[in-house]
Every structure is written in C-alpha cells, then in structure tokens.
Write a structure and sequence with these properties.
237 residues, alpha/beta, Nitrilase/N-carbamoyl-D-aminoacid amidohydrolase, 6-stranded mixed sheet, 12 strands, 21% helix
Length: 237
C-alpha cells in the first residue's frame, strides 16, 4: 500500500521533560509541534508525565491538554502523546493519545509491559491502526516493538507505517535500532520511533534518545542524537 497516496510529513520529537510537571511538559509538547512542521508528530512513551510510574492518570478532558490542542490547530498536526490513563473500572494503562484540532482521544494502550510496570498498569490493546490522510498507521509503545506476536499482528493489518513512543537506556540503543529494522521489513512499512531524551524515572537516569525514521527496506533515512529538545523529520511516500 505504500506509495498509493499523497506523501505524509512526519516528525519524532524528544521534548525536554520535567518529572510530573504536566503544565511545563504540555508547553514543551506544544512548542515541538509548532517547530516540527509535520502532519503527524510522535512523542516518547509517557512523554507528558515522564517515565514516572507513580504519576496520576491524566483525564482526556484535563485542562493541561489545551495548549497541545491549540498547537495542533495552528499547525494542522496530529500529535501522538504518551500518558497514563485510567478506564471506568479503575484500571490504569500506559497509553498513546491522539491530539488534533478536534481534541484528545485514546488511540492505543501498551500491550507488553516490562520491569515494574505490571505492578501498576494493566496490559492493553492488540495491534491497532490509526488512519491519517489515507495512511494506515500502526501504533506501539516501547516493549511492544520487541514482541514478535505484536509485530506479526501489525504486519497482518497491512500498515503503511509503524509509529512508536519509547524510553530506552543508552546501552539499549543497538536493540532499539534492531527492532526498527525487523518491524520495517516484517511490515514492509516505514517506521518512526520517538525515543525519550534526558533523565527520567525508574532506571532511566540516562536515556538513549536517537529518534529516527526507517524506510520499508530497513534503512535509516533520518535521525537525531541523544539531546533533549531534538526533532527528526521525514516525508513518507
């Protein structure tokens, strides 16, 4: 399906993140969206709170989203933001939220949990597709990207691109790169990884950053380094 529709401008952002400071982090997201000049902007895992597993769930109608919605309205962008959420039964999830001029909606909940995450969060959805401008975008969050069952499920859905938010330690960068290549070739799709940059919670006193975009044949076509505040951009087509 790749190439059957108009090119799609995407970006992966590594915003500066302050632990549990939703207001400051929302401003950083809004600034990144404006700077990205892209139709779709992908952010790292738990980008709105930081990788702070004790963070309270963020309601979809919380005022903190307003600045991000405004930035999407000004830029005509769709942003994929990481945050913890809670369902009606009280279960918590590591989630990906779609923010657009229309508002905020939940589009994906992390399926494969690791480390201390199962003590706080429930496993979420199976392979999921978001459609933007005719593009079928597969979604994932961190450990999902290394789960063969998840990757096979995405490939079966015939996605045009696979977008994921990550948080990895610097020494895990080779694994981050290897997973992208596996996904690109298995799905025959573009891959966009937004990887956390700067210190955050848990075991992540340092993070890998190095967000990048890979072509369907597994070649990296654009990347940035480990610095917080960086944005990588590419046109898929």
């Amino acid at each position: 399906m790749v190439g059957m529709h108009a090119p799609l401008r995407v970006a992966a952002a590594q915003p500066v993140c302050r632990a549990l400071d939703l207001t400051a982090n929302a401003r950083a997201h809004a600034d990144a969206i404006r700077a990205a000049e892209a139709r779709v902007v992908v952010f790292p895992e738990l980008s709105l709170t930081g990788y702070e597993l004790e963070a309270d769930p963020v309601p979809l109608d919380a005022p903190v989203w307003t600045s991000i919605v405004d930035a999407c309205s000004e830029s005509g962008s769709v942003a994929l933001v990481g945050a913890p959420v809670q369902d009606a039964s009280g279960r918590s999830f590591i989630a990906m939220l779609e923010v657009s001029p229309a508002g905020v909606r939940l589009v994906y909940r992390k399926g494969w949990l690791g480390g201390d995450e199962p003590r706080r969060f429930s496993s979420g959805d199976g392979p999921t597709v978001l459609e933007v401008d005719g593009w079928r975008l597969g979604l994932g969050i961190c450990k999902d990207t290394g789960a063969a069952q998840h990757v096979a499920g995405m490939a079966a859905l015939g996605v045009d691109a696979y977008l994921a938010g990550l948080v990895h330690r610097p020494e895990e960068l080779p694994e981050q790169e290897a997973r992208a290549v596996v996904i690109a070739r298995a799905c025959r799709a573009w891959v966009v990884f937004a990887s956390f940059a700067g210190a955050t919670g848990g075991v992540f006193s340092e993070t890998a950053g190095s967000s990048a975009v890979w072509s369907p044949d597994g070649l990296a076509v654009a990347r940035v380094g480990p610095e917080a505040g960086s944005i990588v951009r590419a046109t898929l087509g």
